[in-house]
């Protein structure tokens, strides 16, 4: 893929896509591939009426236009041109067409006005680039919204909604800007028309998302040895809601192995959680049983000690009253040894 560079491209290495979220960056890299974009344009935008060749697609570096803006003294705070900007060269017709692609994972009601702003900014920067060139012609732009949500896009695709409410003499003068929306779920139905193998495999995975057997077969056979690019794996992970923890970015991902490892890890984690829960429940049950047993033993011991103390007190009282040992033994049932011990501990005479 060719890349248009700015004047200071040799000084700083630029990244075309910067994002804090891995999915955003991965989706921009995936759909920014010339082979993927060529298939998308040929089959879904032009509907087979024009075959786009990957070598005729140029992914534009937005930094180039930031340089042009700065030189013209018109650097704006927001100088984006959408998520992806291609230049499509059509040598058969001797023209070049811009293709602006906005990737959306949720609906945005004001999307037509946003894309119109991108187009206006792009047209102005093109003008700044070609000041003084009498032969320059504006490059027309095709604006696309790629809906990466499984639900159908229902927000307006025209700027002013229903202009039919305007009187006829006014309606014909209004330029009602229109955008083209491509739903990823609808795109998947055209997977068989694609020539890029990985793009076709990704769309087939989306198409078979409700059929586990076909989806697994596509994971295994959609790509050689079941190896998908990192960007395709991240894309599928989110769109299909698989829940893989892919970790650091690497060259290739075996989707079957990744899913199997995820299942095994979940089972192991579930077993560990079950064991921990069982251990805690066992400890709690054992603690309760131990407390109950200890309480019963303590109560029994307390009663015994209470009876013993009461007996000793009765013996002491009878000795203090001068009762003979034989009478004390007969009244309390204590042994002579116990009576003697009480008498000795209190220094009382034993009769």
Sequence stretches where pLDDT stays below 50 over 5 or more residues? 1-20, 67-72
Oligomer: single chain
- Inertia-based shape: rod-shaped
β-sheet strand percentage: 5-15%
Average pLDDT for all residues: 77
Brief description of this entry?
The protein has 351 residues and is an alpha/beta fold.
Topology, element by element:
Elements: E1 2-4, H1 22-31, H2 34-45, E2 57-60, H3 62-71, E3 84-90, E4 95-104, H4 111-129, E5 141-147, H5 168-171, E6 180-183, H6 184-188, H7 197-207, H8 212-221, E7 227-229, H9 230-239, E8 252-254, H10 255-320, H11 325-332, H12 336-345
Parallel strand pairs: 1-2, 4-5, 5-6
Antiparallel strand pairs: 2-3, 3-4, 7-8
Describe the structure.
The chain is an alpha/beta fold and 351 residues long. The protein contains 12 helices and 8 strands. It has helices at residues 22-31, 34-45, 62-71, 111-129, 168-171, 184-188, 197-207, 212-221, 230-239, 255-320, 325-332, 336-345; strands spanning 2-4, 57-60, 84-90, 95-104, 141-147, 180-183, 227-229, 252-254. The strands form 2 sheets. Strands 1-2-3-4-5-6 form a 6-stranded mixed beta sheet, sandwiched between helices. A two-stranded antiparallel sheet has the order 7-8. Helix 1 (22-31) crosses helix 9 (230-239). The longest helix has 66 residues, at 255-320. The model is unreliable at 1-20 and 67-72 (pLDDT under 50).
């Amino acid at each position: 893929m060719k890349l248009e560079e700015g004047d200071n491209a040799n000084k700083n290495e630029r990244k075309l896509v910067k994002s804090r979220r891995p999915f955003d960056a991965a989706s921009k890299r995936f759909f920014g591939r010339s082979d993927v974009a060529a298939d998308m344009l040929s089959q879904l935008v032009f509907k087979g009426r024009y075959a786009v060749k990957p070598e005729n697609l140029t992914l534009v570096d937005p930094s180039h236009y930031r340089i042009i803006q700065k030189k013209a003294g018109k650097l704006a705070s927001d100088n984006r041109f959408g998520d992806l900007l291609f230049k499509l060269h059509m040598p058969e017709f001797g023209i070049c067409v811009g293709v602006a692609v906005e990737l959306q994972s949720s609906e945005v009601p004001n999307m037509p006005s946003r894309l119109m702003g991108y187009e206006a900014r792009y047209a102005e920067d093109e003008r700044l680039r070609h000041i003084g060139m009498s032969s320059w012609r504006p490059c027309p732009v095709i604006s696309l919204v790629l809906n990466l949500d499984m639900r159908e896009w229902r927000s307006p695709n025209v700027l002013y909604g229903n202009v039919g409410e305007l009187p006829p003499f006014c309606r014909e003068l209004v330029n009602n800007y229109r955008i083209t929306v491509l739903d990823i779920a609808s795109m998947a139905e055209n997977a068989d028309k694609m020539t890029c193998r990985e793009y076709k495999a990704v769309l087939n995975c989306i198409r078979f998302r409700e059929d586990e057997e076909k989806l697994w077969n596509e994971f295994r056979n959609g790509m050689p040895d079941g190896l998908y690019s990192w960007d395709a794996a991240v894309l599928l992970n989110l769109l299909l809601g698989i829940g893989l923890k892919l970790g650091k970015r690497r060259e290739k991902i075996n989707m079957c192995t990744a899913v199997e490892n995820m299942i095994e890890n979940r089972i192991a984690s579930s077993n560990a959680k079950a064991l921990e829960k069982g251990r805690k429940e066992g400890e709690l049950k054992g603690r309760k049983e131990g407390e109950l047993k200890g309480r019963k033993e303590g109560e029994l011991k307390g009663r015994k000690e209470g009876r013993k103390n009461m007996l000793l007190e009765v013996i002491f009282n009878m000795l203090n009253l001068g009762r003979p040992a034989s009478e004390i033994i007969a009244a309390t049932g204590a042994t002579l040894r116990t009576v003697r011990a009480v008498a000795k501990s209190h220094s009382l005479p034993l009769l």
